[in-house]
């Protein structure tokens, strides 16, 4: 009896930004806004045969204590502009962009993604996110109007409406010389009408059906509502868990939900974010990882992070001194504005109690406490050790693959591409070349409205979860 074939690993690359992952002080660190940086990063990912490149996007620079965060990228180009430009300098790499469903309209977003899918010949993907804070909403006409509890209902209707637009052009609705844009075989092509709670629109969608039919849809929420939204509507979920027990619990939970929507396990990929530090030996890598964490969490960063919990101005405290003796202020976070305004800990008073006990027991300063309580890199070790870890987690149904976030831009992916990827290829768990032309091909996903495509072996049924999820990697101040 032949042995079961191993699952194939999916790998992608997240261009860093809007976080404290980047080590800005490293001499190798480059620009986060020059197009050359995006080109270098994308070409490295494509050289390594990754599935896609991922771009996050913030709709407003975050503030804390009335000042813009040091870790925010000022001047970051528009996501669609960057992805369209990268389509011209890459051939197979998928192009994934984060676009907000709260402060946009279905028609314009559908038109932009359908256009990107045409320009890239079928490599577009949309990470659907929501927003509810009034601070971000001040940049938009309907700023702050959406109650937090309504953000997913709007997102679900937004995505459903966009899909109606994508599907308004039937396959084959355009005659052979459609490039001229002059003739339609069917006068119904592009016609749509949607009358719902959030959107009441009708007309004609003016972009013909794109190579993938619809862009690949990603979802990044971890709440119960977010998991349900992903199970109902997404092709992949941008997960948070990079450890065995927490990853298997999340994997099993999300995959379990698919059946309620008539979907199978192969129709949703689970791809956690992952950081990494490589060294010639495991010991060397762990030494480097500790230094990276110290550079990522400066004294100022540690104070800003602590302010998220305390909801107070702590600028007078010494980051190399003890934790504040005052308690956190309960209620809505008012010191941080923007994405970071969400209270990251449900019980700040209990969090402060636990942290004080930990700091006292280990004699930790504020900075040392933040370093010790925020997640270290997901993968640390020699290339062989990192390859082993990635493969083990995927084969154990803790993930279908990983979205890698290097700490150096734009060259931080180079070492992984040159050393870890060849080892995964030797094991037969990662492609040596692209087998298809579209992102749906890379992910083993069918084109909507067609018979199921040949599915990747990366989606075996999830096994029983081993434990409850652990806290996610710490967000940056």
From TrEMBL:
CDD domains: Nitrilotriacetate_monoxgenase. Residues 452-469 have a biased composition (Low complexity). One of its GO terms (molecular function) is monooxygenase activity. Keywords: Flavoprotein, FMN, Monooxygenase, Oxidoreductase. It comes from the Bacteria. Residues 442-477 are annotated as: Disordered. Residues 25-396 form the Luciferase-like domain. InterPro entries: Diverse_substr_monoxygenases, Luciferase-like_dom, Luciferase-like_sf, NTA_MOA. NCBIfam families: FMN_nitrolo. Belongs to the NtaA/SnaA/DszA monooxygenase family. PANTHER family: ALKANESULFONATE MONOOXYGENASE-RELATED (PTHR30011), C2H2 FINGER DOMAIN TRANSCRIPTION FACTOR (EUROFUNG)-RELATED (PTHR30011:SF16). This is Nitrilotriacetate monooxygenase component A. It comes from Streptomyces virginiae (Streptomyces cinnamonensis).
């Amino acid at each position: 009896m032949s042995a079961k074939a191993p699952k194939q690993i999916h790998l992608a690359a997240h261009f860093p930004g809007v976080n404290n992952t980047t080590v800005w002080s490293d001499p190798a660190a480059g620009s986060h806004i020059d197009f050359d940086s995006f080109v270098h990063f994308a070409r490295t990912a494509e050289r390594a045969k990754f599935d896609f490149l991922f771009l996050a996007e913030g709709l407003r620079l975050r503030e804390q204590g009335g000042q813009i965060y040091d870790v925010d990228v000022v001047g970051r180009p528009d996501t669609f502009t960057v992805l369209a430009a990268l389509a011209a300098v890459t051939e197979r790499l998928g192009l994934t962009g984060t676009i907000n469903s709260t402060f946009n309209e279905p028609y314009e977003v559908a038109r932009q993604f359908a256009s990107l899918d045409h320009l890239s010949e079928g490599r577009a993907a949309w990470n659907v996110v929501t927003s509810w804070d009034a601070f971000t909403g001040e940049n938009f006409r309907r700023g702050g109007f959406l109650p937090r509890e309504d953000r997913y209902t709007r997102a679900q209707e937004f995505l459903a409406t966009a899909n109606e637009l994508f599907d308004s052009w039937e396959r084959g609705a355009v005659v052979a010389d459609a490039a001229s844009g002059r003739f339609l075989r069917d006068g119904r092509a592009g016609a749509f009408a949607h009358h719902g709670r959030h959107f009441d629109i009708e007309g004609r969608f003016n972009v013909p059906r794109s190579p993938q039919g619809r862009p690949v849809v990603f979802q990044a929420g971890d709440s119960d509502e977010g998991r349900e939204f992903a199970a109902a509507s997404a092709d992949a979920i941008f997960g948070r868990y990079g450890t065995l027990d927490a990853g298997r619990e999340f994997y099993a939970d999300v995959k379990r939900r698919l059946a309620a929507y008539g979907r199978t396990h192969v129709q949703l990929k689970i791809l956690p974010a992952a950081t990494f530090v490589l060294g010639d030996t495991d010991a060397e890598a762990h030494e480097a990882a500790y230094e990276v964490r110290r550079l990522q969490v400066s004294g100022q960063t540690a104070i800003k992070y602590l302010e998220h919990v305390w909801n107070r101005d702590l600028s007078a405290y010494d980051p190399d001194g003890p934790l504040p003796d005052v308690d956190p202020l309960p209620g809505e976070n008012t010191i941080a504005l923007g994405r970071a305004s969400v209270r990251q800990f449900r019980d700040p008073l209990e969090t402060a109690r636990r942290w004080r006990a930990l700091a006292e027991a280990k004699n930790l300063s504020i900075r040392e406490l933040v370093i010790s309580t925020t997640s270290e890199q997901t993968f640390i070790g020699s290339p062989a050790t990192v390859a082993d870890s990635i493969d083990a987690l995927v084969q154990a149904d803790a993930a279908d693959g990983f979205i890698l976030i290097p700490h150096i831009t734009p060259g931080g992916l180079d070492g992984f591409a040159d050393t870890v990827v060849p080892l995964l290829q030797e094991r037969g768990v990662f492609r040596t070349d692209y087998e298809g032309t579209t992102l749906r091909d890379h992910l083993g996903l069918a084109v909507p409205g067609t018979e199921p495509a040949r599915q990747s072996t990366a989606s075996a049924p999830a096994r029983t979860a081993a434990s409850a999820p652990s806290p996610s990697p710490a967000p940056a101040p």
